[in-house]
Amino acid sequence: MRSSVSVILSNPPPDTTMSYPDYCTNPHHHQTLLVLVRQVGSQLKSRSFQKLYERISRVGHVKVSDSNGSQRPVWVTYRREYPVENNDWGDFQTHRRVLGIITIGQVGSQSDLNDICKQHESLKVKYSSTLYDSRCIILGLNPDGTIYEADSRNPSRGTSPEPNGGIDGGSHPPTINGHAQSTHIKKISAGSTDRDSGVYETVSSEDKPTDSDSHSESPQGMSEGMMDLKIDTNHVNGSDSGSESTSEVGCCDDSKMDSPRDSAVDSAPDSAHDTSQSSISTSASQSSRLSLQPPSNFKTRALFYPTSEHAVNIESQLQEFVSSLFWVLESKRLDKSQEKLERPPLLCAPFERKDFIGLDMDSRTNKKRCVGRLRKQLADLTLQAGLPTEAIVHYSHAADTLRNCNDWLWLAACFEGLCAASVVMLYPNLRRSFGLQRYSSLGVGGNQGGSGGIGNRSRNGAVNTNSLPTGLDPIIVKQTSKHCLSPDDIIDKYREAIVHYSKYRNAGVVETEASIKAVHVLIEQKRYLMAAEFLSNVVFINLQLSDEEKIARFNALADLYHQIGFHRKASFFRRVAAMRCVAPQNQQPDWGQCYRLLLQTLEGYKISLDPLEFRKDGSQGWPALQVQILQELVGTSRRMGQNALCTRHQAFLVCAMLPHLSESERKETANMLESLSARSGSGPAPLVVQDTGVIIPAVNFLNIPICRSVRVQPPAVGRKAEKKLSQEAEEDTGPFIFSPFSSLTSNTQRAQGKMDFDWVEGDVCEVILDLENPMPFELKVTSMMLITEGAQFESWTSTVVLKAERGPQPVTLRGRPQGAGELKITGYSSTVMGVSSNCRLKFIPHMKIPFYTINVVSALPFIQILTANSNTGSLGSERAVSEESGNLHLSLSAGETQECSVVLHNISSQPVEEISIALESKMDKTLLSQVFQYSEENIQAQLPIQPGGKASVTLYVYASSDFLCPSRMMDESLETSSLVSGSEPPSLVSGGPSSLPSRQSVATSSTRGARTRRTDSSASLLSSRSGSSVRSGSSSSTQAPSSTARTRTTLNTSACTGRTLEATMQVKYSGGSGLLADYCRSTQVTVTVDVTPSLLVTRWDVLPAELPHQCYVVLDLLNCATHEMDLHYTPTKHILIEAGDSCRVPIPIDRCPLATLTQNGSDSESGWGWSSVLGNHVASLVELRWTQGPCDTPGRASLTGITFPPATHDLITMAPIHWDVQVDGQDVVGGTENTGVVGRTLELCVGVTNTSGAPLPPLSLRLTAFQDHQNGTLNYRLDAKMTTTGATKLTTPQLAEGEEFRHCCGLVFFTAGVYKVEVTCSPAAAVTQTSFYENITPAHQHAWKFAPPLEITVTDA
Q: How far apart are CA 746 and CA 852, in angstroms?
């Protein structure tokens, strides 16, 4: 306990502390043998030494067969420099001992040789306390010791000198210090496969040793156990820098080895060795050469080589050297494992020695301490000897012993060794991980910094925390390493060891290295957060280091943080290292190294010096840190004197960090950039950093100003070039086949910016850029012009000043195509704040189209459009229209016709040789042909149009309109339901057009409700209709509707609203060179016709006429114009209608023949199928002409589109039957009065004759008597007033053409009065009802009535 307190409170002198930590250490170094490789003498060049050192460092693994025949893996660590202070800690941890020394020098004289030997011996003395063996490689001497002459022939790559540099054949054995050296290993035949024959064989780390063993010849001066030596080599790739050795397992193929497999040869040389001897003469002339002899005190084995290229067998020499170190180590391990001392010595760390002076070493506690420390050292030797399982056992026993005596320092070393032995077994591939490099290469824009990051490290270790590495069987590991720590226990022991190390102020280096080893294990286990905890402990360990060592320390920490994925933390420490390079206390600041380290920090701060890869939206990285780092780069490059580099970094700062700068910062950085660019400028070319080769990409201001959109302006409509229609018509694209891939392809092509218009050669073309100024001041942009590819294009430069305001500001860039072909617009160039930029559209983030492609065609003629109203005068009143499109506006009343003149003026220098005119409109073709008409032959007769000439086209415009009212226009109380109105619900017209009415029989209307009827002079228009072709009855009923009815109505604005007709006259023309290229230009004139209402048909109906072949179409007409209208509705009749007045006019027309219905009706059995046919028939016979206004403007209206419900079809069509009605033998005709007497039978005979021209099916004949009370009430209940004799309902047989059917019955009246008899004939299927109320004839069926109904006046006797 006393000693522990003494150790904790001790304050040793500085020489007992290790110089600096080894930041490249890992747990596998505990099993390696440390070999120091030094350059001696002054003749050897650093490059030659570097090449040899790299070859030496590849021999990092040698397999040696021990005395029991089992193979031991021996690992070697090579170092160029190793402080003696660190070597003094060899008792504490044996892997810190320098066991071997290899010196490399070159001689040219005896003095050079003496100097090399002296330096070598001094190194041996320096590390004599731990040194086992050494080698001295001397270049410039032949194997016999003579000086190598440069004019001698160099040996070929196939030569194989002896291990000591001697020649093949044995006639000249090599001599060192005058003693002949015997051959160490016997050469085997080339075809031998015996791996134990003594041949140094290169094997991969995965190869397992064979069971066959044979023994090589015993080397001179070695123990008897050396007779069983077997060595297998596994060459690995060393560090490129050469600053550190490696213990990584690797595989080196034979093609990369400079020497053959044989390390020594016998006296029987092969052909390859014979070839090598041609460069070394064995004649008597050798005696005349100067032979150099090493000093007498030089006791080291020397290897002579003329040059480094001649050292083809140096690997085999190193294998033999490593085997010698192993056997010395093995002997020491055996000695320590077998010795039993009564008073074991106390092993101490350098700073502990003074603390044990004067203490009682015979105490029980101190004896345990001595035994525990010796056991711990034995475990170190056992681990180095390739026995990790035994080492774990020794470490465990030593830890138990040291824990009992509270020896925390050595207990921590036991834990560290125990972890190292476990890692050797569990993670054999840990040695494969990339070694740390102090100054990693920079990949600008890519993965910067060290190469050991998570993203690019290839690891074969544990997949998860507790899993074993790939390739290790858990059962085998359990059997062979029972005491091996689990992955979690390894970390716990490392943590406990570090805690114990932290108790000692002089163990800071050991604590640091233990933490680094734990970090490597955690990286292998992929436990990165816990690795960060161990690295944090390293940061807070206080070590006395120089500035250079501190820089190395921060770089090492940065590399480790980079490996665990803490890129920002890695960059932080690398930046700290950079700042240490130029710290104020540094007497020689290295700005170049500071700049290189700052470049390596960019990745961790999410900065890429390539603006195209750097995210400007702030979604990654920390803007404040990024701005600071970039400012430090600017300042560092400025102190370096690199003005161009400084300007480039400042431009990147302004461009990339613009969204994160305040307005004041933007202004300040912009002013600084202008000042720097005024000195050196900044072009759009990359810069190369001197001494590093790092390329700094160009900075193009893609966001200063911000280009919001690019609009390639098409030519004006009048100047647009198009492919001729004839050429397009000839192209055969084949049948249409739908494919989603073709649609995607077309979309992609469109997205690539292929313009659907052409530019014309020689025309001024424009591209509009919507630019936004992000700076808080007016931004001046100079030398702004388009960047194009393809066809020759003259781009004009422009200078713009963008206002300091938000929002896009349009900037127009112009140019002129100089030739035909495909032109590609890829971007624009500009100069802002002294920085020239080539802004490609594909690099602008929000621009989806990388370039725009426009086809440039040959020059074409151009014409100007002039318009004039032909009714107002000649061409003297012509009016020019714009290039884009002409616009001719007319205002006409519905039905009015007007002429208009369109003049084509050729203002180009070439004649117009071809021209075509076409009308385009959204109207249907029929309506278009009614509204617009012109003569194309007239314009073709005026070709060619010479330059300056004119040609005119006369356009006839008719204001077509729908003259049928879409809704009811008059009040219901003033009208009758018998007139047709378009406001009836569609359900009442059985799905017909909205302008069609609902027709019901008179009888139905009386039963469903009484309706008020007009009793004025127009009652004949409103009376019931029987549907017969012959009209008879009273005088009031037979009067023709020759008078008109006037009504003042309230206008419905929706019905009297005008319409607009619009059409475009397309004029395509070509001529000159453009005609030869099959291109043309097109212009257009838009003709807009505002149609105002004039005459409107609000209602329509059909009434029977006096003549059987005619009927009356009764129209309610409304004057919607603002002037009085003179309406001519028949050739001989007209009427004046005031504005807003309505009148009813009857128009007699001929009925439609049945043959017409049969030919044109869509369905002869459906009433609605004949509606359009009958409507066309009526519209063709009725034409309404009118004049209005002060100029008596003429117009005409038609009934196009009028339709009639099925109930009116029988009135419009010719009846298929002829009625013959007699009362008491007297024929009933129009105007005939029928009388009867109460109580006397009145005989009624009805005859039906087939006049349809085809057989008629059976018909249902029905006689119905009723009384009309003239008040809208019809009385059919006459049982008490009359009776009949004979049938009133019967079915006729089928009637042939011209055949007649006659039926007679008697009528007996009981009371006097006026009676009416309705005679109806319909198809037999319609009369199957038993009650009149149910006997309603469907609207789609035919029913022919004798009209007017038969009227009988019955009087008393």
A: 15
Q: Which two tokens stand for residue 52?
A: 């040899």
Sign of the four-CA dihedral 758, 761, 762, 766? positive
CA distance linking residue 166 with residue 204, whole number of Å:
30
Query: How far is the C-alpha of 1171 from the C-alpha of 989, rounded, in Å?
Result: 11
Which of the 8 DSSP states describes residue 191?
T
Contact 1317, 1352 (CB under 8 A): yes
SS3 264: coil
Burial 854-889 (b: 16+ CB within 10 A, else e): bbbbbbbbbbbbbbbebeeeeeeebeebebeebebe
CB of 573 closer than 8 Å to CB of 659: no
Per-residue tokens: 1142: 């309505």
Helix intervals (H) in 350-432: 364-384, 388-404, 408-426
Which tokens belong to 1211? 């009135």
Report the C-alpha gap between 472 and 469 in whole angstroms.
6
What is the mean pLDDT of each successive set of 10 residues along the chain, which is 1357 residues long? 37 58 91 95 91 92 89 93 90 93 93 92 93 93 84 42 37 36 33 30 34 34 34 35 32 34 33 37 46 86 90 91 94 86 84 74 82 93 93 93 92 94 89 44 37 39 44 57 83 94 91 94 93 91 88 93 93 93 87 92 88 70 89 91 90 89 92 88 78 85 90 86 63 61 50 81 91 92 93 92 90 91 93 91 87 90 75 46 62 83 84 87 83 83 86 85 62 38 34 34 33 33 33 34 52 63 86 86 86 84 78 86 84 84 87 72 53 83 84 84 80 81 84 84 90 82 90 88 90 87 92 90 59 36 75 87
CB-based contact 1111:1105 (threshold 8 Å): yes
Cα distances (Å, whole numbers) of residue 1125 to 641, 1119, 1195: 97, 7, 10
AA identity, residue 636: T
Q: Say what the alpha-carbon torsion angle 1112, 1118, 1119, 1125 is, to the nearest 10 degrees.
A: 20
Q: What does DSSP assign to residue 1138?
A: -
Q: Which of 195, 198, 229, 191 is nearest to 210 (CA)?
A: 195
3-state DSSP assignment of residue 933:
strand
CA angle 52, 55, 59 (to 5 degrees): 135
User: Which residue has 């059997």 as its token pair?
Assistant: 479
As given in the structure block, the two tokens for residue 59 are 């021999």
DSSP conformation class of 1240: S
